[in-house]
Automatic annotation (TrEMBL):
<comment type="similarity">
    <text>Belongs to the AIR carboxylase family. Class I subfamily.</text>
</comment>
<dbReference type="InterPro" id="IPR033747">
    <property type="entry name" value="PurE_ClassI"/>
</dbReference>
<dbReference type="GO" id="GO:0034023">
    <property type="term" value="F:5-(carboxyamino)imidazole ribonucleotide mutase activity"/>
</dbReference>
<dbReference type="InterPro" id="IPR024694">
    <property type="entry name" value="PurE_prokaryotes"/>
</dbReference>
<feature type="binding site">
    <location>
        <position position="15"/>
    </location>
    <ligand>
        <name>substrate</name>
    </ligand>
</feature>
<feature type="domain" description="PurE">
    <location>
        <begin position="4"/>
        <end position="155"/>
    </location>
</feature>
<dbReference type="InterPro" id="IPR000031">
    <property type="entry name" value="PurE_dom"/>
</dbReference>
<keyword id="KW-0472">Membrane</keyword>
<keyword id="KW-0413">Isomerase</keyword>
<feature type="binding site">
    <location>
        <position position="12"/>
    </location>
    <ligand>
        <name>substrate</name>
    </ligand>
</feature>
<keyword id="KW-0812">Transmembrane</keyword>
<dbReference type="Pfam" id="PF00731">
    <property type="entry name" value="AIRC"/>
</dbReference>
<feature type="binding site">
    <location>
        <position position="42"/>
    </location>
    <ligand>
        <name>substrate</name>
    </ligand>
</feature>
<comment type="function">
    <text>Catalyzes the conversion of N5-carboxyaminoimidazole ribonucleotide (N5-CAIR) to 4-carboxy-5-aminoimidazole ribonucleotide (CAIR).</text>
</comment>
<protein>
    <recommendedName>
        <fullName>N5-carboxyaminoimidazole ribonucleotide mutase</fullName>
        <ecNumber>5.4.99.18</ecNumber>
    </recommendedName>
</protein>
<keyword id="KW-0658">Purine biosynthesis</keyword>
<comment type="pathway">
    <text>Purine metabolism; IMP biosynthesis via de novo pathway; 5-amino-1-(5-phospho-D-ribosyl)imidazole-4-carboxylate from 5-amino-1-(5-phospho-D-ribosyl)imidazole (N5-CAIR route): step 2/2.</text>
</comment>
């Protein structure tokens, strides 16, 4: 199997329905990726191991989805200089506003790029990762431009119902 260049991690298997959008977009662009559950508060040692191994294993960025708190993307970013893209996962009581504000409000010095709440954010994190990687990968740049072109074609074909 090809070496992953993007790692997609999430705090729980309950995050998968949101985070699968990131994996699906990476796979559609033929970007080698991996996905796994890494919980900051329930498996802290695994988090440290994952962060320590990220650069040596060839990961170029990490997409981290978290519900309720920023500790997964935040602590990953604290333990590696591999860029971390944070996806706020909708939470049961505050619908992901808690996730968004905690991730986007990382204190100065250790950045986490923060995306929209939910599947749109997960998809955009993957597309952002693709754009970062495309600078050094002409074939990926072409695939990303093709994706944009197909998206444009689909919107141009949209019609609305007649009214009145
Ligand atoms: C966070 O707690 C996870 O990212 C998840 O969004 C949330 C709830 O986890 P579960 O109780 O569903 O395992 O760590």
């Amino acid at each position: 199997m090809e070496q992953s260049v993007v790692g997609v991690v999430m705090g729980s298997e309950s995050d998968w329905e949101v985070m699968r959008a990131a994996v699906e977009h990476l796979q559609a662009l033929a970007i080698p990726c991996e996905q796994r559950v890494v919980s900051a508060h329930r498996t802290p040692d695994l988090l440290f191991d994952y962060a320590a191994g990220a650069a040596p294993r060839g990961l170029r960025c990490i997409i981290a989805g978290a519900g309720g708190a920023a500790h997964l993307p935040g602590m990953l970013a604290a333990k590696t200089i591999v860029p971390v893209l944070g996806v706020p996962v909708p939470s049961r009581h505050l619908q992901g506003l808690d996730s968004l504000l905690s991730i986007v409000q990382m204190p100065k010095g250790v950045p986490v790029a923060t995306f929209a709440i939910g599947a749109a954010g997960a998809a955009n994190a993957a597309l952002f990762a693709a754009a970062m990687l495309a600078g050094a990968d002409a074939a990926l740049a072409r695939r990303l431009l093709d994706f944009r072109a197909r998206q444009e074609t689909a919107v141009m074909a949209m019609t609305l119902p007649e009214t009145g």
